[in-house]
């Protein structure tokens, strides 16, 4: 049956090539777009988690209250020690965020003072990605500050200039003078114009001695990538070790909007693919149906010599499956080759800043998962079956005598 | 029913039509094709249904071959009444019991002669090796084994009709119905085909019922059923060798 179907499909080569080509194009398109969806998802995940960690430890009431003091983790060193006992292989970034007024010699504006102490690897990565000029404040320094480049421009200060910070109503000094040692660049301008970085110790002396706003936990995978399952497991262990005084959140809980958007990308792509498969399916319907109309007499003979209706319907379905399988094979092959050719990364020239502004990595690494390939093949098979249903039904209802008298 | 050759008992017919009528309807126009045909064909007979165009020859073969349903009357294959069977049962009968040879050969153009000859066996689910052996034997019996791997468009009309006969022969049906099998052949090739079918009838005991309006072919049969306007007007036994 399959050999006969294959030969029948290629009786009208041009028509079948167009239909199979359409299927191949759709499969290729779907595969490549799935690859870019995966790359984008992975890239955004990497960006997000490298910025804010896979897990965050925050004050127990940090999500409910707005008050600066109430959101703090005051016994930060004890919490950190307990955390590292449970998860010894992680990298930590300790962060104290303080809303404050910042000024240069002539101008002032509201700012977010961020005191940071972090693992050396994280510090290097942060400096590599964000230091536009100068350097970050030295660990433990009390008098050095780095500003978002936009904030520095707004304050009209340059490297080496004095900068003044006022954080009234806090438990530290409440005000201090610093030397501008670095300018920082961030993709989001709204953040760049309010961010001012101190060492953690400097921020603690300014506003909240020995406290932090959060601990960012960066998991280090033993092999491969950090999966949601690994993150959930680490969260459960950390939460059990730290008790109710603090709250442990995954990156999904910390950034629910982003997580929801990433979760929607695959289904949205699947729906989009389904639509274009429907369009390709129309071409397949056309090819199979015309093939049927041209061979009604032949089908009449096949029924006359003993094929029952189901058999005839199966023959039509087989032709559709063979046609779509040929297109799918070509689409998978070319799509696979394209993805392999982008294994070292895909960069869209001139769009780095646009992508960064949108929170996307400049270099994408397209790849497809087995599930995405299965979905693509599943759509193709469904297209073949759906496209053949009507022609098969028509063929199955042919009366042999009438069919054998048919003149195409 | 007929006395068998020994005169010891009756032979039951393998094909039977009882009061068979068929009316084709096209809107309000009704065209009677058969009007109360009674016919019995014994196993091993080599019978021609003769008559002018429109006399109902093809319709009679279609009804007896379970390809169409009568307006009234009965059709029987052996002991089984066939006009009341559902489509699937009729398809099974056609597949396993009845062979067809058509005027227009009706081979499948994408299959080779061998594959065409094996096609009915493939529908029956016979394994490839076995069906190809049987099909090749049929092609050899018909003297066209050397054409086994050619496609129909590479064969002459006579060769194509031989492949069509091989398709039937390989399937070894109880009855072969041939609807004007020589109509598209020149007289020499047509006669050769009739000789061939006659040989198969004699050697294998296959029952043949074929329609024709070519009087030269009727010299080779041992029974002629004449139809006119959908009625049997004569049923002659002749002494063909």
Radius of gyration of chain A: 31 Å
* Physical arrangement of strands within the biggest beta sheet of chain B: 8-9-10-5-11-12
- The shape of chain B, in one word, is globular
Helix/strand-derived category of chain B reads: alpha/beta
Please give the alpha-carbon distance between the first and last residues of chain B: 23 Å
How many strand segments of chain A? 12
Report the end-to-end length of chain A measured between terminal Cα atoms. Answer: 24 Å
Report the largest inter-chain contact. A-B, 20 and 23 residues
Helix count of chain A? 15
The helix content of chain B, as a percent range, equals 25-40%
Can you tell me about this structure?
The complex is a heterodimer of chains A (408) and B (241). Chain A contains 15 helices and 12 strands. Chain A has helices at residues 2-9, 13-52, 76-86, 120-130, 149-155, 189-192, 200-207, 228-242, 251-254, 256-294, 296-304, 309-341, 352-357, 370-396, 400-405; strands at 55-59, 91-103, 108-118, 131-134, 144-148, 162-166, 175-184, 195-199, 214-218, 246-250, 346-347, 363-364. The radius of gyration of chain A is 31 Å and the shape is elongated. With 241 residues, chain B is an alpha/beta fold. Chain B is built from 7 helices and 12 strands. Chain B has helices spanning 57-64, 87-96, 113-117, 119-124, 128-141, 157-171, 187-204, and strands at 2-3, 10-11, 15-26, 29-41, 46-50, 72-77, 80-81, 98-101, 175-179, 207-212, 223-228, 231-237. Chain B has a 6-stranded mixed β-sheet, with helices on both faces. The longest helix of chain B is centred in the last third of the chain and has 18 residues, at 187-204. The model of chain B is unreliable at 1-8 (pLDDT under 50). Chain A binds chain B through residues 4, 7-8, 11, 297-298, 301-309, 311, 399-401, 404, and chain B through 62, 65, 67-68, 87-88, 91-92, 94-96, 100, 102, 106, 108-111, 119-120, 123-124, 167.
């Amino acid at each position: 049956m399959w050999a006969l179907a294959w030969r029948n499909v290629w009786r009208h080569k041009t028509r079948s090539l167009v239909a199979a080509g359409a299927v191949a194009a759709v499969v290729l398109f779907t595969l490549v777009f799935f690859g870019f969806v995966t790359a984008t998802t992975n890239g955004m995940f990497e960006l997000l988690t490298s910025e804010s960690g896979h897990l965050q430890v925050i004050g127990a009431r940090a999500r409910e209250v707005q008050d600066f003091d109430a959101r703090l983790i005051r016994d930060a060193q004890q919490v950190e020690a307990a955390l590292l006992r449970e998860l010894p292989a992680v990298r930590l970034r300790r962060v104290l965020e303080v809303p404050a007024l910042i000024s240069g010699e002539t101008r002032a504006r509201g700012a977010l003072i961020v005191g940071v102490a972090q693992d050396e690897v994280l510090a290097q990565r942060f400096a590599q990605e964000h230091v536009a000029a100068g350097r970050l404040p030295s660990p433990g320094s009390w008098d050095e500050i780095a500003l978002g480049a936009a904030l520095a421009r707004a304050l009209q200060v340059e490297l080496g200039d004095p900068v003044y910070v006022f954080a009234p109503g806090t438990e530290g000094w409440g005000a201090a003078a610093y030397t501008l040692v670095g300018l920082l660049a961030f993709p989001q301008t709204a953040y760049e114009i309010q961010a001012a970085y101190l060492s953690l110790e400097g921020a603690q002396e300014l506003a909240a001695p020995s406290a932090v706003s959060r601990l960012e936990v960066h998991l280090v995978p033993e092999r491969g990538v950090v999966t949601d399952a690994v993150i959930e497991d680490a969260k459960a262990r950390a939460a059990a070790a730290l008790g109710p005084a603090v709250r442990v959140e995954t990156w999904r809980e910390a950034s629910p909007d982003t997580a929801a958007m990433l979760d929607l990308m695959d289904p949205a792509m699947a729906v989009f693919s389904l639509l274009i498969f429907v369009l390709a399916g129309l071409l397949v319907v056309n090819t199979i149906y015309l093939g049927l109309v041209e061979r009604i007499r032949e089908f009449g003979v096949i029924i006359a010599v003993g094929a029952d209706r189901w058999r005839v319907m199966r023959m039509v379905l087989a032709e559709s499956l063979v046609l779509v399988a040929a297109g799918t094979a070509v689409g998978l092959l070319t799509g696979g080759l394209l993805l392999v050719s982008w294994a070292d990364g895909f960069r869209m020239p001139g769009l780095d800043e646009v992508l960064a502004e949108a929170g996307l990595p400049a270099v994408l690494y397209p790849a497809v998962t087995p599930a995405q390939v299965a979905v693509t093949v599943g759509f193709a098979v469904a297209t073949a079956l759906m496209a053949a249903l009507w022609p098969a039904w028509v063929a199955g209802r042919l009366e042999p005598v009438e069919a054998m008298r048919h003149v195409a | 029913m007929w006395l068998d050759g020994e005169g010891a008992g009756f032979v039951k017919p393998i094909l039977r039509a009882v009061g068979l009528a068929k009316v084709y309807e096209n809107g309000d126009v009704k065209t009677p094709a058969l009007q109360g045909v009674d016919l019995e064909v014994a196993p091993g007979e080599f019978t021609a249904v003769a008559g002018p165009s429109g006399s109902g020859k093809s319709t009679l073969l279609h009804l007896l071959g379970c390809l169409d349903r009568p307006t009234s009357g009965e059709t029987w294959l052996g002991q089984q009444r066939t006009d009341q069977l559902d489509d699937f049962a009729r398809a099974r009968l056609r597949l396993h019991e009845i062979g067809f040879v058509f005027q227009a050969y009706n081979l499948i153009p994408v299959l080779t002669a061998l594959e065409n000859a094996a096609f009915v066996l493939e529908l029956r689910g016979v394994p490839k090796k076995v069906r190809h052996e049987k099909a090749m034997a049929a092609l050899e019996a018909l003297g066209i084994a050397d054409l086994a791997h050619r496609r129909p468009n590479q064969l002459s009309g006579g060769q194509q009709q031989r492949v069509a006969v091989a398709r039937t022969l390989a399937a070894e049906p109880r009855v072969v119905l041939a609807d004007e099998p020589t109509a598209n052949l020149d007289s020499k090739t047509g006669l050769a085909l009739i000789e061939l079918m006659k040989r198969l009838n004699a050697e294998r005991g296959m029952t043949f019922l074929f329609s024709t309006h070519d009087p030269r072919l009727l010299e080779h049969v041992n029974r002629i059923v004449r139809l006119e306007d959908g009625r049997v007007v004569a049923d002659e036994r002749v002494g063909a060798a």
